[in-house]
Design brief:
By secondary structure, the chain is α+β, with helices and mostly antiparallel strands. The chain is built from five helices and four strands, in the order H-H-E-E-E-H-H-H-E.
Length: 156
């Protein structure tokens, strides 16, 4: 009986040492997985990436009809910024968000007065103009585009 227990303990120790050695030497099931080879198209695409996006918090603009709220429009967008230039935009984020909010409160009702649907292209042009105005001449070159992610019309 003592020999059987001694044999089992010895077997467990040898198995543990074997697994430890395989893990330490990264052999067998512990070999590192090879990264999948990238195709030339993927490598070329990575080289061409020169911009990143900076998200702007969503804005909700109320729409009034007479003395009551007729509905609201929620706009969510991001700024396409040159790589390594995000800090320039983030430093002026408070001024940008304030300018967007002030302008959209006036612009949205005027835009929707004559149309049934929101003109996304006009909204994009307006947001670009505000961005360039707030950032100034030097920093306006940092932002290459305004990417509108969603526009939600919530009737009152």
């Amino acid at each position: 009986m003592k020999k059987a227990i001694l044999f089992l303990v010895l077997l467990v120790v040898v198995a543990g040492c074997t697994v430890g050695a395989l893990y330490f030497l990264k052999l067998g099931p512990f070999e590192p997985k090879e990264a999948p080879q990238k195709t030339p198209e993927q490598i070329e695409l990575e080289k061409k990436t020169t911009t990143t996006t900076v998200a702007i918090k969503p804005f909700t603009i109320p729409m009034f009809q007479g003395e009551r709220v007729a509905g609201s429009i929620q706009v969510q967008f991001a700024l396409e910024v040159a790589l390594d230039q995000e800090e320039v935009v983030k430093a002026k984020m408070v001024r940008l968000e304030d300018a967007y909010l002030r302008d959209l409160y006036v612009f949205m009702p005027r835009l929707l007065r004559n149309k049934d649907k929101l003109d996304i292209a006009a909204l994009k042009r307006r947001l670009k103009r505000i961005t360039y105005k707030v950032l100034g001449e030097e920093d306006s070159k940092v932002v290459s585009d305004v990417l509108i992610q969603s526009v939600a019309d919530n009737p009152g």
